[in-house]
Automatic annotation (TrEMBL):
GO molecular function, one term: methyltransferase activity
Official protein name in the record: SCO2525 family SAM-dependent methyltransferase
Segment forming the signal sequence: none
PANTHER family (alphabetical): NICOTINAMIDE N-METHYLTRANSFERASE, NNMT/PNMT/TEMT FAMILY MEMBER
UniProt key word Transferase: yes
Upper lineage: Bacteria, Bacillati, Actinomycetota, Actinomycetes, Kitasatosporales
One GO-annotated biological process of the protein: methylation
Keywords for this protein: Methyltransferase, S-adenosyl-L-methionine, Transferase
UniProt entry tagged with the keyword ATP-binding: no
Length: 264
């Protein structure tokens, strides 16, 4: 099946051929070299997570990266602070890629870890990142819309380029954000990244849908679930690929109670 981003017909998440996602081509195009936008993200979330966990007491910390895809750096950003990290991913092709990275991840990811280590909170840690990754990371196949069955299990979470990059439907975009946030425990720190005005994207030969969002849609989707949070458009002008106008990063903490949103 070939999908198109143009026209009025919606392409919903269930319509996309996720098993045909090419993680090797995706990594080669997006993460073989550390891009300026990702470096900016790492700087911000390093401050956010490092600052949060340095103030916390001891106790088990469970992290989740929702829609991990073929991107390891959100997990790397949580790794020092977590007893366990779940890479939650729908695509069978991406699940296979992630499972192959757990034992010893590729050398291209070293530059992302090194960027995090520019922060004293990370750089002062005496750990072997590959050994730590192997110890704490597990891969679980699942659909973002099924996260509600877990309740608020996780004490820190990330969701990078997922809710707006899996559908053209704004309804499904908002539901994806809701499911992510409700998977987090009250007070959990989070970070989520979004493509601004994305028209869809390729992973290898296959085209995948995207939902056209900007800062307003991101902020309003998060407001019921995040009590203290920031939404900002990245300053970096370099585009990783055609078909979007920028990147948006949101980060903060999960509310203790949701603001007027039904439980389902």
């Amino acid at each position: 099946m070939t999908l198109r981003s143009s026209g009025d017909a919606q392409v919903r998440n269930a319509d996309a051929p996720w098993s045909s996602f090419d993680p090797i081509a995706y990594v080669d195009h997006n993460y073989r070299v550390l891009q300026a936008e990702d470096a900016e993200i790492l700087h911000i979330i390093g401050d956010h997570f490092g600052g949060h966990f340095r103030k916390q007491g001891v106790g088990p910390v469970y992290g989740i990266d929702v829609g991990a895809g073929a991107n390891l750096y959100p997990a790397l950003s949580m790794m020092p602070w977590c007893d366990e990290i779940t890479l939650f991913e729908h695509s069978s092709a991406n699940v296979e890629y992630l499972e192959g990275q757990v034992g010893s991840y590729g050398g291209n990811w070293d530059q992302f870890w090194n960027a995090l280590c520019e922060h004293e909170a990370y750089g002062s840690l005496e750990l072997d990142p590959r050994e730590r990754f192997r110890e704490v990371v597990k891969v679980e196949q699942g659909n973002i819309f099924g996260l509600e069955r877990f309740g608020g299990r996780w004490s820190v979470g990330t969701m990078f380029f997922v809710a707006e990059s899996m559908t053209t439907s704004h309804q499904e975009f908002r539901l994806g954000v809701k499911r992510f946030m409700r998977a987090l425990a009250p007070g959990a720190p989070f970070a989520a990244a979004f493509m601004e005005h994305s028209k869809g994207y390729h992973a290898g030969e296959q085209f995948f849908p995207a939902c056209d969002v900007e800062e307003f849609e991101v902020r309003t989707s998060l407001e019921p679930f995040a009590g203290n949070f920031e939404v900002q458009r990245l300053k970096s002008a370099a585009g990783v690929r055609d078909g979007y106008s920028g990147m948006i990063l949101a980060y903060g903490w999960r509310r203790n109670t949701d603001a007027g949103i039904p439980a389902v």
